[in-house]
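**Fold in tokens:**
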Amino acid sequence: MTSILIKSPMIYDGTGAPPFVSDILIKNNKIESISNIESTSDRLVIEAHGLAASPGFIDTHTHSDGALLNIPQHAHSLRQGVTTEILGQDGLSYAPLSRENYLLNRKYLSGILGLPPKDLDMSSVTAFRENYDRKVSINTAYCIAHGAIRLETVGFNDKPLRDTSLGKAKELVRRGMEEGAVGLATGMSYFPNAWSDTEEIIELCSVVAEFGGVYVTHLRDKNIDRGFGGGGITEALEISKRSGVKLHFSHFRTDENTAGEVSNRIEEIDQAISEGVDVSLELYPYPTGSTFPLSFFPSYAHEGGLAGLLEKLRNPNEKKLLADYLDNDYPRPINDAVFSYVPKAPKYEGISLARIAKEREVSLGTTICDILLENEGELGYWGSPPLSVAVWEQINQDAMEFLSRPDYMVGSDSIPLGSYPHPRAYGTFPRVVGRFQRKYNAM
């Protein structure tokens, strides 16, 4: 049997055209025909009346860079209908890096990307892509990770990119775009990304713009004094306007503090679009997020990378300062954090920070410091959902209002690690096209 005939599905072709019913003939693993086709004895027939068929989904934002290299089957995405993922998101990835810097970043990012094999070549975008092409079960595209660019030029240090170092960084970006990258991604909540200023990003994006690439950004909320207009939306739009690069906002949605404020959230962006700025956006359909606890720590703590942070935590005086910062000065509540990935102590996966702190009879900040030390930084978490069901429901409604726009996409922001991953890793696309669409009928 060499062909498959899918009979009478409702076909959504991905162009935005109205759906239509037809048959699909697949031969030698390729679609040969979409028309009314007769069944024959040499064809496997799948009766699909009342079902839907479409091209595979593109997940525009994932953190699967490491997980794919360890478990290439990637079943959690395939079972959602995802056939392509865009890697390098939030500026957190592995290329282009020398072997020494790859090993450093591999450890630093282990709480969000896992620990891929040590012996991989990540020295260029070409080398990066070869680690995935025809070796994993899905297609991948790559946004050059801004963090990797900074690490390769000035190391894990709070230094500006200027003159020689900026020239080297721009050349790395140019080479990466020539080798098939689709853009540049920054994560301005993370380090070394957040040590940059607006001018640095404009310079790098000017190179990306030459290739028609995209600037993908997780908005700045660290070192906001270095960002034009205090960072955030204003900085991102300024970068696009001055460099000419296309702009994509990562996981742009409402949350517990902004639920119901869709118009306010998007107003500045819509104004820029009306002025000709090329903007797209994405979200995941959940009211809370997930990342790695390294992001809790202040700027200076990241000097020297993971080794530098762990060294500080081993010093009782510095550890106390950092724990006090987490307990008293961190701008968001951390008591609702639930550990998702603790490979050296899996008993903590699915357990809240507050519960562990209570069991240990120490503060939340001290607990984070201790668990990071015990697990050498390899630690992930996700936040609990809002206590208010009404707020949760409002965030859901906001998501569908955003997704009704033609410039919006779906990106899971998945971190497929541990025994208790955030459900967006395996539920994003069914939630949008199933539960949300049936309930709100917005798309």
User: Anything to note?
Assistant: The chain has a mean pLDDT of 95. The first helix runs from residue 67 to 70. The chain has three domains: 3-53, 57-288+386-440, 306-383.
